[in-house]
Amino acid sequence: MKPTNTDPRILSIAAEVAKSPEQNVPIILLNLKEIINSTPIGSSELKKIKQDIYCYDLIQYCLLVLSQDCSRIQGGWSTISQLTQILSHCCVGLEPGEDAEEFYSELLPSAAEKFLVLGRRLQSCFINAAKGEEKDELLHVFQIVTDSLFWLLGGHVQLVQKVLQSDHFLHLLQTDDVQIGSTVMTMLQNILHINSGDLFRIEEKNLHSILDEVVFKLLSTPSPVIRRTATKLLLLLAESHQEILILLRLSACYKGLRSLLNKQEAGTEFSQELRQLLDLLSPKVYQEVEEQKLHKAACVIQAYWKGFQTRKRIKKLPSAVMTLQRSFRAKRTKILLNLNRQKEEEDQRLQLQLQRQRAMRLSRELRLSMLEIVHPGQVEKHNQELEEKSALIIQKHWKGYRERKNFQQQKPSLMEYKAAVTLQRAVLKFLAKCRKKKKLFTPWQGLQGLTDARRVELKEQVDDYVRRHPSSQMSDVASKELHAQAQERLQHYFMGRALEERAQQHREALMAQISTNIEQLIRAPSLKEAEGREPELFISRSRPVAAKAKQAHLTTLKHIQAPWWKKLGEEPGEEIDVPKDELSVELGSLFIGGTKPP
């Protein structure tokens, strides 16, 4: 349902979007930014504008534009960044009304996913960019997209869990670029400031992946910006959630984290945050002793295991050398065989070429000798015969090649046909065998309901019928008489059938006439509305019908003209008899349609 009192600027933008071609839609949608910026923040007017934008499907158009290729959009990444700002500002603070379920379950998750996909595309373009100005522009656009995503998550906290579980977000976090990685980790830090409780609602696998990436960037990245951001983020996680702090202390995955952090350079800009993190990760004395014991035990186990593996490899070394020599010799033999085979094939090719040349030379010599022998007048005839023979040989070879090719193409269908015939034969044999078994093993049950007394009765009836109707041969005269009788009856039947057909046609014509009259009467206007000669069109051609209509009319008139005291004993539906003389007098002056006066 479209809202009332809609801003005319939004109506014009919606009309232009509906009428304009696809390539002009992004530029038209940029006009929404001016409308949103010109409205005071937090006012009821801004809420009404956002509702109008949503009701006219302009937010959906923004989502469709963000899913397109950037090279096809006028303005490129600049247009995309402005559309993300428009989309995030329109979705935050919007009251969808009746379409709340569709808005919260479909549109918002789709918008967050589109922002993450845009971030991935910008990341790949930033990494592949060669010029510094292009990189600065792409980085600026990437920051705008992350800010728009953070603004959207700040207005709809329920999307934080979906974003943290997304594979696109994890790929953005795993980048090696300093600026992109710093921006993504800053956004993650801001998200956790908004709602850090959703971190434990995601899957354990995704949580470990995020922690592993933050710890990796803290320990292995040379950039101080990344290390400072990773330190702040890890400190925020450890201070906010006791479970993460326990995981960083006791988990085997982060066993050497504290010792590696102690080796970090002192006097850096983030030394204070690093010291706070070390204080949080510092265990008690007995925990340190336990860790040392476990470390020594692990070293002993590793030493024994490495020694075992080394001795095992040394024992297998002779056999490995033999296997290596065997495989090398086999490979060398194979290479020599291939070389010999290629040499033999080359020799055969040369021999075939020499044979063709000799055969060509002999054929030409034979032709020259034949030309010397043949009479000069027969040379043309001889050449024509040679050409015909050559043409026949060429046709023969070509037809053979074509038929072989067609046979190879039809071979799969022939195999399928043979397979189908084989299957059909097997199935028919199986069915015949089943029917045969069924007949063999099915016992004869006899005739049901036929007793000996009934058999005697039926036999008597058959004998009586045979006795009363003895078989006799008919003579020629009797056959002719019977044939004449049959012809006479057949003629009588055909004549009667013709009369019946004419009568049936007459009945059908009458029924059609009656139907036509009924339709005309139904469609006829009332007597008050009738004009001219319209009433004469509905005069009946049947005398009984006209008489009955006249009788009903006279009865109605007599009943209307009678005094009131004569109507006292009458019933409402009772008919009044009319004398026949009055009826005949009246009928004398009645015109019956389709008849002539006497």
On the 0 to 100 scale, the average pLDDT is: 77
What profile does the largest beta sheet have? Answer: none
What kind of assembly state do the chains in view correspond to?
Answer: single chain
What is the strand content?
under 5%
Q: What best-fitting shape do the alpha-carbon axes yield?
A: extended
- Radius of gyration equals 54 Å
Spell the H/E element sequence: HHHHHHHHHHHHHHHHHHHHHH
What is the terminal separation in angstroms? 78 Å
Q: What percent of the residues sit in helical stretches (DSSP H or I)? A: over 70%
Give the helix tally: 22
Low-confidence stretches: 582-598
Describe this structure in words.
The protein has helices at 8-19, 25-29, 31-37, 44-55, 58-66, 77-91, 100-128, 132-155, 159-165, 167-173, 178-194, 204-220, 224-240, 242-250, 257-262, 271-281, 285-373, 379-441, 452-468, 476-523, 543-561, 580-588. The protein is mainly alpha-helical and 598 residues long.
Task: Give the topology.
Blueprint: H1 8-19, H2 25-29, H3 31-37, H4 44-55, H5 58-66, H6 77-91, H7 100-128, H8 132-155, H9 159-165, H10 167-173, H11 178-194, H12 204-220, H13 224-240, H14 242-250, H15 257-262, H16 271-281, H17 285-373, H18 379-441, H19 452-468, H20 476-523, H21 543-561, H22 580-588
